[in-house]
Amino acid sequence: MERLSAWTAYLQALPLTLIFLVFFALPIALVVVVSFFDYQTYQILIPDFVLFNYEDVFSSSVTYQTYLITFRFCLMVWAITLVLGFTIAYFLAFHVRTITMQIVLFLLCTIPFWTSIVIRMIAWIPLLGRNGLVNKALLAMGVTDAPVEWLLYSEFAVVIGYVHLYTLFMIVPIFNSMMRIDRSLLEAATDAGASGWQTVWNVIVPLCKPGIAIGSIFVVAMVMGDFVTVNVLGGGQVASVGKAIAAELSYLQFPPAAANSMVLLGVVILLIMLLMRFADVRKEL
Amino acid sequence: MGARSRSFYILATIFGTFVFFLYGPMFAVILLAFQGPDGGLTFPMNGISLHWFADIFRPQSIGDIWGSFDRSIKLGLMVMLATVVISFLSGLAYRKRFRGSSVLFYVVIASLIMPSIVVSLGIGSMFELLGIERSWWSSAFGAHLTWTLPFGLLIMFAVFNRFDPAFEEAARDLGASGWQTIRHVVLPIVAPSLIGVALFGFTLSYDEIARTSQSVGALNTLPMELQAMQTNVTTPVIYALGAYTTALSLVVIGASLTGVLIFRWRQKRHGSDADKGMV
Question: Does the record bear Transport in its keywords (chain A) (predicted)?
Answer without folding.
Answer: yes
